[in-house]
Design goal:
alpha/beta, Rossmann fold, Beta-Lactamase, 4 domains, twelve-stranded mixed sheet, five-stranded mixed sheet, 23 strands, about 45% helix
Length: about 650
């Protein structure tokens, strides 16, 4: 049986995910291990329902019975993510390792930020004669940013130089922050620094754009460096000199350590792997290609590919295809049909798993959960091998429908939470490493489909309300059977259907005896009791799935159904009479309660004329009323 390793991370750090997961996957494939990547797009912007909804994907950890956990903790944005995962790992006693971010009581493996930055700054001074450096830092108090700044200050000190107090800008790891702060600094300082040293590549690229807008040439007028060795920085003009954090090795070693620990070969780790300088054009060195581009190219330059009208059209097509969904079954059928036909972005395996109260919560059932999932989930849509799957329910502990723990091929599954302001909808599972997860396209896909599902819920609510209104309009408020309008909208169409299909139908009639006497002598409340008692007797004898029962008038009832033989309605009428008699005795009513009953047969080979049927029904009803009220009478009329 294969091991199952959960990896928890945030999708906004998409290039980091791509490289570190490549290392994790390589080690997993060598050891026939499956990866369950629990991924979200949390940002911590203060909208509580989004924070809770995004963090909710990590709660799948407690359902999955995993062998170990790898935390990409440096990508997390929410305190709830740290708190929940720490508690879950402790409670479930799962071996775990955190990459690039130290968490209490959890093993840690990270990059040595200091060594690579020290090498880079030494290179700037010794190879390019840099003396004055402007440092653009990450957030104040951040361990990674502080380590990189210390390396810079130490190198300057080793060369009898120093970092001036006003030569530090806080960029908060943010592109737009640098775009705002750097122009102010340049305007306040007449002389350019020799080098702008940025604590990450994102800020370096932002600085490069500011310099370009101001007509300052890189590297001729000022040199520029970053940190992380991102692909986007390696394709920037000029290519950014940076520090390679060896993320691929980090992922590989993190997985390797975890597997060794599961085998009892390791007990704990708290160490780093070295980083190294990666020269580029922005410091004046010749650009050097590396193998990082190869992985990017295998996805067909996906960043440019998804930013076309084809991608936008795909999302619009999904929304349009689902716009008229009004029922659960339509949801299953429509989404499955669409993805079977067009899944070039989603891959060959995908499951949409909804909480089992997703639909019932709309009609007064248990409300949606805020945190966690129901014990079972409804796999409302699934494709496997590109083929739509039947709708099914699975235990949430299974996580993936039809999961094969004995297969010889290592797999990766990608999980993302579905939620709205109303609560948890469920989760989506991709059965492979889809290219759009390494681009913000997957965020767009999730956001688009959450809106689609919200619209579907609204449609279902409206449809249910319309059904209820429609049912109320054809339902008799006193007895619960159809009213006179129901006769026109339900009974008559059923009669036509029987005639069209060549089936003999029967119209049965019941009329309460001496109804006026009951009302006048015992009051209308007792009259209502009599009407309800007769209606219940009819419903008890006739199967309402096969018969249509109508309160035709004040104390008159019409029943329409299929007739198997001529004696069939006679037997039913006797049964109704017997049931009514026993019920009246049990209720100890102060008056005798009986009904005159008759029926009209509608032969399939006769021309169906509803007005003629009604006329004969009136005649039959009139003749029944002429009979003695104290006896049960049966009148058969053929049409």
């Amino acid at each position: 049986m294969k091991r199952k390793i959960a990896v928890c991370g945030n999708g906004w750090s998409n290039e980091y995910l791509e490289v570190v997961l490549s290392g994790i996957r390589k080690c997993a494939e060598e050891n026939n291990t499956d990866i369950f990547f629990l991924m979200n797009y949390s940002v911590g912007n203060g909208e509580e329902y989004k924070d809770v909804g995004d963090a909710n994907v990590f709660r799948l950890l407690e359902y999955g019975q995993f062998d170990g956990v790898i935390l990409l903790a440096n990508t997390f944005h929410l305190a709830e993510e740290f708190d929940y995962l720490s508690e879950a790992i402790r409670k479930l006693k799962i071996p775990a390792i955190s990459l690039e971010y130290q968490m209490p009581d959890i093993d840690y493996l990270g990059t040595d930020n200091y060594s690579g930055m020290h090498e880079l700054c030494t290179h700037l001074i010794e190879e390019h004669n840099a003396k004055e450096m402007l440092f653009i830092s990450g957030p104040g108090g951040n361990a990674e940013s502080d380590s990189r700044r210390k390396a810079l200050e130490d190198v300057l000190k080793e060369h009898q130089l120093s970092l001036k107090d006003d030569y530090v800008i806080c960029g908060n790891w943010n592109y737009f922050e640098v775009q705002e702060q750097l122009p102010i600094w340049l305007d306040e300082h007449a002389k350019l620094p020799d080098v702008i040293v940025c604590a990450n590549d994102v800020m370096a690229m932002a600085a490069g754009m500011v310099l370009k807008e101001k007509g300052i040439a890189v590297p001729e007028d000022v040199k520029l460096t970053g940190f992380d060795h991102l692909l986007s920085a390696r394709t920037f003009s000029s290519t950014i000199t940076s520090v390679d954090r060896n993320w691929n090795d980090l992922g590989y070693q993190g997985m390797q350590y975890l597997l060794q620990k599961l085998e009892g070969r390791e007990t704990s780790v708290n160490t780093t792997i070295p980083s190294k300088m990666a020269p580029g054009e922005s410091c004046g060195c010749k650009h050097k290609e590396d193998d990082g581009t190869d992985r990017y190219e295998q996805f067909g330059n996906y960043d440019r590919y998804v930013n076309t009208s084809f991608w936008e059209g795909h999302l619009c097509d999904i929304a349009e295809h689902m716009s008229n969904v009004r029922t659960e079954e339509e949801f299953h059928k429509s989404f499955s049909e669409y993805l079977q036909r067009d899944h070039k972005y989603e891959g060959e395996e995908l499951y949409v798993c909804l909480t089992d109260n997703f639909f019932s919560s709309l009609t007064g059932g248990m409300p949606l959960l805020e945190r966690g999932y129901t014990e079972t989930v409804d796999v409302i849509c699934g494709i496997k091998g590109g083929v739509a799957q039947e709708r099914t329910k699975i235990d949430t502990k299974q996580l993936v429908p039809g999961y094969d723990s004995d297969s010889e091929k290592s797999k990766i599954y990608i999980f993302l939470a579905l939620y709205s302001i109303d609560g948890c909808y469920g989760y989506v599972v991709f059965g492979e490493e889809v290219p759009m997860m390494y681009n913000y396209a997957l965020f767009s896909w999730m956001r688009n489909n959450k809106l689609v599902f919200e619209r579907v819920r609204q449609n279902i609510v409206m449809q249910e309300l319309n059904n209820q209104l429609s049912k109320l309009s054809v339902t008799d408020g006193l007895t619960g059977v159809y009213n006179r309008m129901g006769c026109e909208k339900v009974a008559y169409p059923y009669l036509k259907k029987c005639h069209k299909e060549g089936k003999r139908a029967v119209l049965m009639f019941a009329d309460i005896n001496k109804m006026k006497v009951i009302n006048d002598k015992y009051g209308h409340l007792q009259g209502d009791t009599a009407i309800c008692t007769v209606a219940n007797a009819i419903r008890e004898v006739l199967n309402e799935e096969q018969w249509i029962i109508v309160r035709y008038g004040g104390d008159e009832f019409l029943m329409v159904g299929e007739c198997t033989d001529e004696q069939h309605p006679v037997r039913l009428l006797r049964d109704i009479s017997d049931h009514l008699e026993k019920t009246a005795q049990q209720m100890k009513l102060p008056y005798p309660l009986k009904a005159g009953v008759g029926f009209v047969l509608v032969e399939p080979d006769e021309e169906l004329d509803l007005s003629e049927c009604l006329k004969k029904a009136d005649e039959a009803m009139y003749l029944m009323k002429k009979k003695q009220h104290g006896e049960m009478e049966v009148l058969s009329v053929h049409v």
